Amino acid sequence: MAEPHLDHPGCYRDEFHGGLVTSYEVPDGPKMLRETLCLAQTAIGAVAGVTGQHHIALLQRLVDECDRHRPLGRDGTHGDRHTRTCGCEDKQGARLVRVFTFRRWSGREESVTASSVEIAASGALVFRDGDRIVLAVSSPRDWHDLREQPEEQGHGEA
User: Fold this and answer.
1) Which superkingdom does the taxonomy of this entry point to (predicted)?
2) Are 103 and 65 within one domain?
3) Residue-range definition of the domain harbouring residue 118
4) How many Å apart are CA 9 and CA 11, to the nearest integer?
């Protein structure tokens, strides 16, 4: 769990993510934010070219966070991939997906949105969305430090 950072208001110390993590409260949902961020990436790429790559990469981290809250399928639609923070109003009886994070031995962190994860007898990770396999990491040498991201508590929730 992230601890508030006393020297940086609005930031949290989170060792899993490698240091300070910020938390922003904005009135727009993840769908609108994602669309705006992607438009900004395209504009920066068109105007700044190679010199804008750093900003495009920073925007991509924000897009990835939007996707964590409102996951999309391979077809680019949200469909029934609801989370508690996806912004959909009609989730009654819907299947909620979960977000899992693991680290590659290379140090790269990956997030996967799935309804379940299992560790096979061989040590492979298998992420599933219902009966469909979302991602399989075949070798136990390819991953470590599997965690499920905690559910975000929105305003007014008990």
Assistant:
1) Bacteria
2) no
3) 98-148
4) 5
pTM value?
0.55
Half-sphere exposure for 126 (CA within 13 Å, toward CB): 12
- CA 78 – CA 11 distance, rounded (Å): 29
- 78 pLDDT band, cuts 50/70/90, is confident
User: In angstroms, how far apart are the furthest CA atoms of the chain?
Assistant: 51
The answer to whether the beta carbons of residues 136 and 124 sit under 8 Å apart is yes
Radius of gyration for the chain, computed over Cα atoms and rounded to the nearest angstrom: 17
6-59 pLDDT per residue, tens? 555 555 555 555 565 667 778 888 899 999 999 999 999 999 888 899 999 999
The identity of residue 151, as a single letter, is: E
**Total of domains in the chain:** 2
* CB proximity list for 145: less than 8 A, separation 6 or greater: 16, 102, 103
Q: Which of 48, 69, 90 is the last residue of a domain?
A: 69
